[in-house]
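To assess whether the prediction recovers the assembly geometry, we first specified each molecular entity separately, as shown.
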Amino acid sequence: MECSFALTGKGYVLIAADTTAARSIVKMKADEDKIKSLGPHLLMAYSGEPGDTVQFAEYVERNIRLYQIRNLYPLRPASAASWVRRALADSLRSRSPYSVNLLLGGYDTATHAPSLYWIDYLGTQAEVPFACHGYGSYFALSLLDRYHDPEASLEEGLATLRRCIDEVAKRLVVAPGKYKVKVVDKDGVREIEL
Amino acid sequence: MSIMEYNGGSVIAMVGKGCVAIGSDLRLGNQALTVATNFEKVFPVTDRIYLGMSGLATDVATLREQFRFRVNMYQIKEERDIEPEAFAHLVSSTLYERRFGPYFIEPVIGGLWKTQGGEYKPYIAAADLIGCLNFAKDFVVAGTASEKLFGVAEGLWEPDLEPEDLFETISQTLMNGVDRDAYSGWGAIIHIVTPDKVVTRTLKGRMD
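The predicted structure of the complete assembly is given in tokenized form:
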């Protein structure tokens, strides 16, 4: 089943999402990238109804890009999160709502602060130090309560993330096999091999 | 599973002597799973009016934006701040607009209104999710811990409390109310509104 994790540290946000694309009980693909970069300093992990996810993620990606083209500067993480939340909240009360859950991580180049937003398909938004979506959250959140440190270096953050992934692999019956990990910090967005 | 209890959370408002207090807990959950412990449910509307909302968190955020817009439009048209009573009816009609597909929130309003003589009188009100207003002389509650809050408030509240005593009363009521509710808690925030200033304090609570 789908799992995504994210945590903040000293000047960065780490986001991990599993790479399986499943339909019913069948794994269709094992290297699907479910983390999109929405800008030079903004990452979004998406999960939920297959089809809705990619459709909605691309809609968000294009609109955030359009804002940057029109205004010559990108949306800051808090504003981007508000916009995405609004898009989901409006969709919830439409004829065909998107069922997409998101983790939005960004680095604000103006205040030099990393921020992470947890958003679900209802349009519920929360700014959090760490977050998860999917069945993995039942195991990972308690680990993160114990081990998360907002002042941790990238190496320490990755160690905490690895702990979460290992625990989910150990205890969850339907644990995914592989994850893609991305980080956003002052230098922008990049992928990390665990 | 009720949709009103999906995210958890509680709000309360109380009348004092020339002041009002309004507060909420800080939990945001997904049923029994706590997602965030910094989710405030009380928002300033004007310098002397605060609005608290409990219920479905997505609607709390949406309505907060909607009320900000409508209050701004009112201020531009009328060239004055909205009074608590008018705001209560604005809340009521906004909710009743969605009578057959409601926003799943229960609002609580706390504010001060200016009399002809220039003094300020406390005003509190609450409503259900379709905007049926409930004016009260003492206190109003909403949210997953509302039954407990009613009980504690009934025992602790007394008329004509000074701001500092009112703060103690509302804090004790809220803390002891939400501690008996698994869906509320994780700290609280209280605003004391007086004619010349608003004092905001965050409370630490049981983190379990």
